[in-house]
Design goal:
With 380 residues, the chain is mostly helical. It contains nine helices and no strands. It is elongated and about 120 Å long. The relative contact order is 0.10.
Length: 380
Amino acid sequence: MTVATQLKSMDFAMFARASEGLTHFRGIVVSFLAMLLAGTFLFLGLYLAARSTGGFGRIMLFICWLIYRGVAGTGVSATGIMLLDRARETPPRSLSDALVFGFICFLKACVIAIAIGAAALLLGLLAAILYFICKIPGIGPLLLFFTHPVLVVLAGLFAFLSGIFAALAAPALWDGDTVMQAIAKSIAILKERAVTTVLYLLVMGLVTAVILGIIGAVIVPGYFSMTGLAAGIVGANAGADMNLLTNLPMAMMYLSSGASGHVMSMMLATAVLVMLAVAAALQVQLMGINLVYLGVSEGVDTVAAESMLKHQFDQAKAKAEEAKQRAIVATERAKAAAQQARSASPAAVPAQAAASMCPGCNAAISPTDAFCENCGHRLK
């Protein structure tokens, strides 16, 4: 199918359906509660890290960060699953099923994220090696002149394609595919319909930006007008101490007392308002990604891509096993050589010592001596 045919077959009417995410009440509630709970754990981790001087605070911050990622990822996945049902116009799953399956999809997405991170690390390692080579005097500057633009383009393409790949792999996981199937399907879509996919996502991004602008046009004027009115009535003490964020007992005390309590209450209310706005915007973004996925994945043959991917994994596994066997053989040879050296050295040392001492008086002798200079013992 040519690019022109693909562009003619694009259903531009589906872009308007992205706004349906704003009417998905369950998704907004799940996203908001997930962000609220995840933010609470992250806030707790920052508080413990600020109050602890040793490694305990860092450990607790890392644990709270993991919980934050898990809760936020599960909430986003569960919302994406429910919006995928809405995009397909199929009966929606229950909230409990969406949350359980969302957590499973989050774990699968972590595997894909690790794979993308490993590829980025390899690209960075290659770039570091090339830049080290460019430090060679003489030819180095000339090599840098040609190498740097190529690496810049490669890094940009990698970042761009990684974003497109993630936007296709996430709905595939929500659709019930395994990690291998999601990767294979995303590769097949990019091979067959790369131009269409990019155009779909760009147009959907513009639609999402317009809807986000409408949300901002509603919230921003209301926020500034009501905040100014509240400051005029309650008090204009905006000198909030940000150190309160690292001292929970003091923050709770200030929250229920005086002008400082009003400031802290205003800060927390603003944070909740931002979370609600982000939760509403997230519905539009996820609905758009699901619609793009359904539009570009229909009729795509993923069997060849999955077979190719499986073949590549089998080859990599075989090479890794071969390298492991070579390492085991080399280790065994080194152990055998060391053991042979240890067993041979005790016999050689006494023989050498006996050859350098007179058998009659144990005086030191030379290998060329015919008689011992000390006792006259015949040596040869």
